[in-house]
Description:
Layout: E1 12-19, H1 27-36, E2 42-48, H2 53-60, E3 65-69, H3 74-86, E4 95-100, E5 103-104, H4 111-118, E6 124-130, E7 147-148, E8 152-156, H5 157-160, H6 163-170, H7 178-195, E9 200-204, H8 214-217, H9 219-224, E10 230-231, H10 233-236, H11 239-244, H12 249-257, H13 263-273, H14 276-282, E11 286-288, E12 304-309, H15 316-323, E13 331-336, H16 339-350, E14 359-363, H17 370-376, H18 380-383, E15 390-395, H19 404-419, H20 422-434, E16 438-442, H21 461-471, E17 490-492, H22 498-501, H23 521-526, H24 529-535, E18 539-544, H25 546-564, H26 571-580, H27 587-599, H28 601-607, E19 609-611, E20 617-619
Helix pairs in contact: 13-24, 27-28
Amino acid sequence: xxxxxxxxxxxxxxxxxxxxxxxxxxxxxxxxxxxxxxxxxxxxxxxxxxxxxxxxxxxxxxxxxxxxxxxxxxxxxxxxxxxxxxxxxxxxxxxxxxxxxxxxxxxxxxxxxxxxxxxxxxxxxxxxxxxxxxxxxxxxxxxxxxxxxxxxxxxxxxxxxxxxxxxxxxxxxxxxxxxxxxxxxxxxxxxxxxxxxxxxxxxxxxxxxxxxxxxxxxxxxxxxxxxxxxxxxxxxxxxxxxxxxxxxxxxxxxxxxxxxxxxxxxxxxxxxxxxxxxxxxxxxxxxxxxxxxxxxxxxxxxxxxxxxxxxxxxxxxxxxxxxxxxxxxxxxxxxxxxxxxxxxxxxxxxxxxxxxxxxxxxxxxxxxxxxxxxxxxxxxxxxxxxxxxxxxxxxxxxxxxxxxxxxxxxxxxxxxxxxxxxxxxxxxxxxxxxxxxxxxxxxxxxxxxxxxxxxxxxxxxxxxxxxxxxxxxxxxxxxxxxxxxxxxxxxxxxxxxxxxxxxxxxxxxxxxxxxxxxxxxxxxxxxxxxxxxxxxxxxxxxxxxxxxxxxxxxxxxxxxxxxxxxxxxxxxxxxxxxxxxxxxxxxxxxxxxxxxxxxxxxxxxxxxxxxxxxxxxxxxxxxxxxxxxx
Length: 630
């Protein structure tokens, strides 16, 4: 028995690597470090990139040393610099733990794991491991050796006082890519020390689980086995890939909730750092609400204001009926473009004394920007007042330019999925009572009648990114289509909209009526609420009635089935194949379509496109013209 293989005195030093896109320190990091504190004599926090004053202050409460370094070399270089910082003092510790901020903990207690692993005779241990794979998935050939996963590596004195350890870390470069970090460190590290006779073992080896990557594919089973960590990756990984492997993150979150870890901390971190549509998909943040109230707490009412922008006066009664479904009392604010409409609306409201607890009609200085400017300019004082817990944003909607049937469905899709009945509305409001971190709720993406799927950004993404920078929104943007309230109707916490509301917009910012188009400010702002809310840590839920879901799902299932018939493989294979061709209007896909339309001009003309003498796409009139939702 080698005594250096046991942390007999229990002296442990931790190197904890941190990276934050904002230069701060998130709550989940502090919670993890606080949980490690009873099991470590010394904790060194290594921050890759900048660290602001609030982040430093938070870390100082829970760690002993703070190292701030350039964001190069990933967590591996961070640990290298931490070991240099420790220098000869490392020999006074029985164990050094190298870990990072890629997990939430303690989703289960740390103590049993430390006690179990302290009792084992070994040199290195990790929380989980990865099996041997042939061929190597990174190269397509060779072997990926079995290895401990580097987000948690503990080394006993027998290792960290060896010449091999010293020489290894002295030679660690600043890896430039994730693939290099895995292949040239994570895999080789375990293999190297095993080849020199050191014993390396995982606390939760893959052999005890039904997949080769339990941290990714069996997170719920790891929790059942007592693993104190939940890796963040399965919660933000590419949704089709998780679907391929049957990973249901919603079940994992429900498993976390069985313990003492605050789920809202997970949701807050993911909101700020994951593309909103990816988060919405992976965590299944869509609720099909019943028409009968099953969840509203009348003893804890929320202060609600309904803000209605009414252009079509004849819709006033219908809109008042909608907000009349809200539980309890509410204040009503109506905006409209001119005095004539205001007088007609006030006349209607006078005949409906129960339309709101208080009722105000505001005449806009301009209708430029339509409902967006009415909300953010004319009602800015309401949003910033602090007087309300929820704001309901609706506007009269007909969409006449898209034809009767399409416009009727779009309006129904918005109104019924928000306030279909008193019971339904009560259940929607109860979502906010249940989840303090819920920022905004709205219907799912419109797709019946519109080619929105795959085109949700339209031409708004460049301008959207510019406004995010101006407003201080650093949430990653979704690649294909934003998670957004298409139609611009929703229920939200005013605080979740603060980044939008506190900016001093003017009607002039929106331009004239000709500026109300894709790429214009109004269409950019239509797509922004979830991203503005997420920057502040609020998450989004989409909601629908059971009837709408039956319409939407059957349509979407048929359409996906039709599209999937054109390529081989599963959904991941199909998506990656199509992406290799490029997106519509750019790259090889554009060239392919140009070639196809040149060979088959009638097909192009039927779809509304032709090729001009300069070999450019030209739009022509077509009864099949795709519609953008307004």
